[in-house]
Each structure stands twice: as C-alpha cells, then as structure tokens.
Amino acid sequence: MKLKQLEGFLGDLQQFSNPKVELEQYPTGPHIASRMLFTAENSYGDISDKVVADFGCGCGTLSAAAALLDASCVIGFDVDPQSLETATLNAEELEVEIDFVQCDVTKLELKGQVVDTVVMNPPFGTRKKGADMEFLSAAMKVASRAVYSLHKTSTREHIKRAALRDFNAKSAEVICELRYDLPKLYKFHKRKEVDIAVDLWRFEPRQN
C-alpha cells in the first residue's frame, strides 16, 4: 500500500467526540499516523505478519494503520470505553479486524501473548507528569521486536537516557522529527491550533 493511500484511509476515521483532558486525549492525525506505520513497515519490516499492540489507542488510528499494512494481529489497549467504541466503529468502517481491550496499559500483564511491535502516541506528560515514561516503560516490557512512539522533541535527551538506562532498550533512535498539529480541543487552549515538534522514536528491547 502506498503512503498516500494509507493516509487517505486514515483521514476518514472518526476522532474523539468528547476528549478527556485528564487522559491527554488528542487525535493522532492521518499525516503522522501514516508516516509512523509506513516507516515501521517499509524501513524495518516491523508490521506486516507481526503481532502489533497499540498502547493508549484512543480512536484506533494507529491500530487501523497496522491492520491496513497487513499485521497478522492487532490489539488496541485503552482505559477509556468511549474511545474504544469509536475505535470499534472505525475498524468496522474500514473492514479490518482489530481486538480492542479496555485496560490501563501501565498495569498491563500479558500472559503468554507474544507481541512483536508496540506502536503508540502516549500522553506527553503535561497534565500528569511522567505519564509518557510510564507508557514507554510498559511498552518495553511487552514488545519483543520494537517500540515506535511519539515524544516531544524537547524531551529527546531525557527519553534516550531513560530508555537505555532504565527500560532495557538495546537501542533508541529518533527516526524522524514531525510537526504535530494540536487542534484547540480544550477550554484552556488559547490558540486555535499549536504546532509542536515531536520525535518519532524506534526503541529495540534487549532480548532477555
């Protein structure tokens, strides 16, 4: 599937109708989501025929991208039941098969389920300090092959140090820097939209 085609499919998906500020719910736009998953597949072979988990999947944009790129199994995890309802509708609309599970990924314990790749757009940790690190720590415990994650460029050194020192990463590299258009979703947002520099990371866990 070509990148533009993938972005087109993702552009039709429903997003949060009533986003929850405490969960830092922001939509992962089709531009970023398509490039994130397309790169994971075409540069590293981490999606097609792999078991892919989407942490904090929200309305399922990254899950849908993984399914469209022929992942063998896609599981989306989110704590918010409303988001999962929207994600389920999106999967039905695209006619792709995705399993959605309601849970807190930071407390996730997968028994016997082998996950190759985790993809995620975690909370940036602006409302709950350290939320981004909790997601990364959880993902590194679950993925056997790679973790793809978006983090603010301003936190680059902190992320790299923590991944290599604390989260058992064999490697941590920024694949590309993207611009994240943050629409005005919440009352405390002063401007109509904000452009944030974010890094797309690829982390490789050590094999235990």
UniProtKB/TrEMBL annotation:
Residues 84-111 form a coiled coil. Residues 48-139 form the Methyltransferase small domain. GO terms for molecular function: nucleic acid binding; rRNA (adenine-N6-)-methyltransferase activity. Keywords: Coiled coil. GO terms for biological process: rRNA methylation. InterPro entries: DNA_methylase_N6_adenine_CS, rRNA_MeTrfase/Polyamine_Synth, SAM-dependent_MTases_sf, Small_mtfrase_dom. Pfam families: MTS. Belongs to the methyltransferase superfamily. PrmA family. This is Methyltransferase-like protein 5. It comes from Brassica napus (Rape).
